[in-house]
Amino acid sequence: xxxxxxxxxxxxxxxxxxxxxxxxxxxxxxxxxxxxxxxxxxxxxxxxxxxxxxxxxxxxxxxxxxxxxxxxxxxxxxxxxxxxxxxxxxxxxxxxxxxxxxxxxxxxxxxxxxxxxxxxxxxxxxxxxxxxxxxxxxxxxxxxxxxxxxxxxxxxxxxxxxxxxxxxxxxxxxxxxxxxxxxxxxxxxxxxxxxxxxxxxxxxxxxxxxxxxxxxxxxxxxxxxxxxxxxxxxxxxxxxxxxxxxxxxxxxxxxxxx
Length: 258
Hints:
Elements: E1 15-23, E2 26-31, E3 34-42, H1 45-54, E4 59-64, H2 65-70, H3 76-81, E5 88-92, H4 98-107, E6 111-114, H5 116-120, H6 122-132, E7 137-140, E8 144-145, E9 151-155, E10 160-165, H7 166-175, E11 180-184, H8 197-206, E12 211-215, H9 221-229, E13 234-237, H10 239-242, H11 248-252
Parallel strand pairs: 1-4, 1-13, 4-5, 5-6, 6-7, 7-11, 11-12, 12-13
Antiparallel strand pairs: 1-2, 2-3, 8-9, 9-10
């Protein structure tokens, strides 16, 4: 997988996006998606989100971790509360039906993240793209590389094998007209090990029309810049931002016009 830079003059739009993962009403981070390796960062997600907004953030990535594993999104009230923050919210966890997508959009979501269903039932999710519009749905193809080098796609909060590969589903969703793709290298998630730039460059070269969101491993501003230069449209900022390794205003300064 090449790590050759994109050609000079790349003008892709770019947005740093703070992330809040919730479990039991608390803001947490998991290491490599392991529910047994959890760090708690606070019990007032709305206050943290407002702090990000006040520092210049325009988007928030909001995840219901329990729903991601078990189904049944529970953060509708918080989503409505965040409507007054000025943030546009991309959110998911446990989205299993068209009615789930509709409820989240009605509650104020700007984009709904679909993960497990995108792997298990790609034709169904392709229908949601047609029904709700390309701008309303973000497909999450979160991947773990196997010993054979193939990128496989776990589901149910990354706890079970989804039986699909990144390459195959990427092509499917390109043909279905997908606009927004979130991809996490699971082994780097919550580990502050740096983003997998080779993975994102591979995706961008294979599907140049996609708005790719880099997720997993970002630890400093240099990593945000590197994700942008790799051709990503966004970088999801989790643990490093919560731990103050850089500030939300510093991240917002790396935004490029959309």
